[in-house]
Amino acid sequence: MRILKKIFSRSRPEEGGIFFGEIEKIIGFRPLNIEGYTMAFTHRSSNKTDEKGNPISYERLEFLGDAMLSSVIAAHLFNQVPSGDEGYLTKMRSKIVSREHLNELGRDLNLIRFVESKVPTQHFGDNIHGNIFEALVGAIYLDAGYPACEKFINARVIAPYVDIPKLEGKVISYKSLLIEWCQKEKKTFHYDVFEDNGISGERLFGVKLSIDGKVVAKARAVSKKKAEEKASHRAYFAFQEKINTK
Amino acid sequence: MRILKKIFSRSRPEEGGIFFGEIEKIIGFRPLNIEGYTMAFTHRSSNKTDEKGNPISYERLEFLGDAMLSSVIAAHLFNQVPSGDEGYLTKMRSKIVSREHLNELGRDLNLIRFVESKVPTQHFGDNIHGNIFEALVGAIYLDAGYPACEKFINARVIAPYVDIPKLEGKVISYKSLLIEWCQKEKKTFHYDVFEDNGISGERLFGVKLSIDGKVVAKARAVSKKKAEEKASHRAYFAFQEKINTK
Predict the structure, then answer these.
(1) Shortest CA distance to A146 belongs to which of B67, B19, B113?
(2) What is the pLDDT of residues A127-143, one digit of tens each?
(3) Which of B120, B146, B167 is a domain's end point?
(4) CATH code for the domain in which residue A12 is found
(5) What's the mean pLDDT in B67-92?
(6) pLDDT of residue B171 exceeding 50
(7) What residue of B is the nearest CA neighbor of A73?
(8) CB neighbours of A59 closer than 8 A, spacing ≥ 6?
(9) Which residues of chain B does A149 touch, with a Cβ-Cβ cutoff of 8 Å?
(10) Which of A11, A202, A206, A232 has the most other CB atoms within 10 Å of its CB?
């Protein structure tokens, strides 16, 4: 709380200020106890300690969040792919919780804007995004237990990103899948790309994908190509039934 | 169910026979659905398949159980050792879920007696014990969810075995700790060792540890030394308060 007041002293300080509201939006429920979330965004360089002198930083929460991610994803794959053996399940999980993918998840939520650090956040490598994402999962576990963690991972990892055909390499590009479908269905499509640098100052690209003149999906990523693919993926899910049955 | 009837056709076939009752004793609650437990004890060599032709064996459940063990142990360590950093927590967890330790857990519960296999169980290596233990944890998750899993791991792994001072290498031998205490307190002690081969035909040793003529702990293990250490550990926990305060 002490830390929060310092960072976000502008509003509702009794609830942790802006941070409290923003975290609520991200995690999808009202935090019961803000402490773990504060820890999830505290970098070691802040040199904070608890009353017993133990350092406060997101690193321990990363360990916890990583474990929760692994078990929720394991259960999901186990249930979704009854034909997959142990080796297959292990491989699929490691693709889902890959460093690159976790970084993408953290970056998409722009979690870095909350980080308290004595080192400027621009100096961190790419992995800070994934590390903070894992720490956030750990904080959710501490705050509200396994079911809340499961719900968050379902909403923020599995539903938008876990795509078994693509992970298996059966679908290489959603953009080509979507274009093919549009051509077959005689629909027009347009990718509107723009630079969108966000708060953190990173170079990012935004994409709006329109079909028949209507925006059907938006996405943001580090490259134009990735943003287009992400938007196509989202559109694909929106149209999945139509695409598969035609 | 079909498989169970074949293995354990002697009693209560409508409930899965002896197996049902034995599993209940081991897991500490009445199974809601016996199917997962059957799978946890089916070796690949049985060549069973489900109605869709997917092979039934404990290997996929091992993957699931391993994930559940990792996350329950992670949460336990996170809460118990607030001073431990990420590296420490990772190291401690890998000691707890080491192959050797999992094998010991499975062997202690004599899980191998339930295994259905075309290969004689004596031909399996040591790892079968740990693999089946992991699969059992996976089956508990399928049957009754994460909280049941957590409860089982607490009762069967954490409470009897997870001993942070020993894992940290601060306590090397509970036998020497106990002997030292007996000598200081002028108590007599006696380790009564006997061969105890159990149902599976493995060579095992049983130990009864008496203090002042009264049996205070029993244990069974693959070597005399291990059985003595295990009995000492159990006695240590029974006497912990006395030993630490004197």
Answers:
(1) B67
(2) 999 999 999 999 999 99
(3) B167
(4) 1.10.1520.10
(5) 94
(6) yes
(7) B67
(8) A44, A131, A135, B85, B86
(9) none
(10) A232
